[in-house]
Specification:
The structure is a homotetramer.
Chain A: H1 7-27, H2 34-41, H3 45-51, H4 55-80, H5 84-101, H6 103-115, H7 124-134, H8 146-156, H9 165-188, H10 195-210
Helix pairs in contact in A: 1-2, 1-4, 1-6, 2-3, 4-5, 4-6, 5-6, 5-8, 5-9, 5-10, 6-9, 8-9, 9-10
The structure holds a DNA duplex (21 and 21 nucleotides).
Amino acid sequence: MRSRDTFTSEQRRAQLVDAAIAVIAEHGYPAASVAKIADRVGIAKSVALYHFRTKDELVAAVTVVVFAAAAEYIVPALAAAETAAGKLAAYIRSNAAFLAEHRAETVALREIATGYRSAEGRRFDEAVTEDTAANPPEGDLALLDPAAIFALGIETGEFRADLDPVRAGSALRGALDGAATDLARLTAIGVTYDPIAYGETLVEIFTRGVLA
Amino acid sequence: MRSRDTFTSEQRRAQLVDAAIAVIAEHGYPAASVAKIADRVGIAKSVALYHFRTKDELVAAVTVVVFAAAAEYIVPALAAAETAAGKLAAYIRSNAAFLAEHRAETVALREIATGYRSAEGRRFDEAVTEDTAANPPEGDLALLDPAAIFALGIETGEFRADLDPVRAGSALRGALDGAATDLARLTAIGVTYDPIAYGETLVEIFTRGVLA
Amino acid sequence: MRSRDTFTSEQRRAQLVDAAIAVIAEHGYPAASVAKIADRVGIAKSVALYHFRTKDELVAAVTVVVFAAAAEYIVPALAAAETAAGKLAAYIRSNAAFLAEHRAETVALREIATGYRSAEGRRFDEAVTEDTAANPPEGDLALLDPAAIFALGIETGEFRADLDPVRAGSALRGALDGAATDLARLTAIGVTYDPIAYGETLVEIFTRGVLA
Amino acid sequence: MRSRDTFTSEQRRAQLVDAAIAVIAEHGYPAASVAKIADRVGIAKSVALYHFRTKDELVAAVTVVVFAAAAEYIVPALAAAETAAGKLAAYIRSNAAFLAEHRAETVALREIATGYRSAEGRRFDEAVTEDTAANPPEGDLALLDPAAIFALGIETGEFRADLDPVRAGSALRGALDGAATDLARLTAIGVTYDPIAYGETLVEIFTRGVLA
DNA sequence: GATGAATGAGGCTTCATTCAT
DNA sequence: AATGAATGAAGCCTCATTCAT
């Protein structure tokens, strides 16, 4: 019966999501305890579990927030580009831009994606994979999966016909995810990291690599 | 008075490393407790910590073993290739072959790379990065870092002069690491995964992407 | 400034008592949290504790309500019977009838009698025993303790002189309470239970068992 | 891989069972936390959960121990009696004797029987009822259910043909369980309680109540 | 009257590690 | 070389209760 749409409540929830992002990015998912997250907000552990019934719920909120924020970068960029090659470059650059401007969010999402396990031991990405299979995204959202961009380019003849779009998509996602990992690693040891430049390198490699 | 070079001792250590690989690959790093690993060998938890003073030591041994096994695939392949392009293809294919033939090892290493934190909170790859900086590998071993292959190709003029070898190296490592992640994810939900075919896709994309 | 005699207030209190009965009967006393009870009424947990300053107070209200309801069955029945044997049968049958027609109430009361402990660890029945000792009931109410019925029968010569009325009373209360336990247990596993028939069995056994 | 049959281990387990009995009898099942039980033994909470993987396992051990102890009183007594009436009296007296000599055990078992709920909310006696239905006891053990004694007496013609053995059994069990409740209640408020005398009262009432 | 928010105590469980044997 | 026992820190979660609005 808790109505969670009060102003205060929304505020607390947002604070908690922010704190969770920071703590996860800093300590990694397994070490990101509810206690640490609540501490960072300056509230009791039990308050966190008052606003999110369970740790999993808080983590889910984090992913929703970060996904939505990322989509705001990527979807318009994709829509603005007309050719498949243009969309490919836009996809890479918007991902890089998001990473550059939302470092903690990206790292946190990466930590969750690789570190989360449900109580029964299921991986985070297993759930996502199955969800996506059950409810395939439509329209521009579908292009959030890079495989769709490669498939489009093959269809329009821009990209090599012998290209495997799914594998190429994995390669690109891997390269992009690697950026988040590099960012976390290098930041931790005090080295600065330039996601934009990395994005340009990817644009060059992947564009040349797939053009017909 | 622990002599670590006895036959049985070495044997036990090897058993434990194998068990650790299996358990980590199956349950993920955070859920891979010493108890579960010891159980799999059929010995008491305390015995595991007798042979490896600490869980971290066991994990370190796992990474050494897996790295060494991977090097046995990659180093000879690199040595056999003469051109930079050849070495690039060899690097990718030998990585893919290792992954195809040592799935548990690969997944376990990925889990560790991704989930491990030292007691002080340092990431696994932070340690590796610093170690590497302190003791740079020499000879063929140096090529285990793909950046070196790209640098070589630029030097020989095979690859584009404007290519950033370090960033290209990150892209390739990311794409390769993504394969391990995909393997873990897809295996978990019962989908078969073909690392060799993925490797060929990477060879095509990266070769075209970097050639002069 | 809490006025506890307003109409709405009385109404809320009654709703809460009803909800408490239902929740306790269904989930057992220890699992019957204030939150669950308030939820069932559709109000906030804090509202429940506004009307009953403490959970103990709510529970006390439940027992009062159920006792009163039971007394409405039992007292008139006792009054209508003239002999001790008649009162004994009336006592058993009215208890059984109450149980048959107020299953949730009976089960809830039993759960409380059995599971409740005050903050200091005192049992529910300890409090009742001491209360009764301090304020002994008078008139027909006194007969709510079956020992009084047996004592009466011994006095009138209907029952065996060597009968111990207190112990016989305990036996009868035990047999009757057992019905509530059986009811809860059997209902939970989907078996129907016939309190009336059980009552008749008790009438037969106890009547023959105590007659002079 | 824990072999739990060491001497020390058996000893600790026995200590823990004893402590659990004492704590449950004193504080009631819901308030009997693992911490309190471990405290009473003078060991860390985690040690208790080392010897019994879970609180439920400890509670199960308690019931097994108490049931076994009770059976040692009851089974031989039943076997020694030849007539149904004799067995009835023996059943009651041996129950009373056990209660008299093992007060804490009896109270604890009663607390568990009425207060235990599984994680899914199942009552203790639901489980027992279903277990018994699945694996009905044989031989003298079958007589541990008083309904069997009444059925026997009806068969031999000692008891009234119109008696319902199951309901009579419930009545007797209820009366006997009531003794445990009374014992707990009266002991708590400092009144002494004589189970043997109570048993005699029950013998008189139930024997007269069921004889043909 | 009503309620959302906050709290701290306590509950069960898991885990890496130590130690005596 | 092996191990059973013990431990304490930490983790997630539930709950009755308080308080300002």
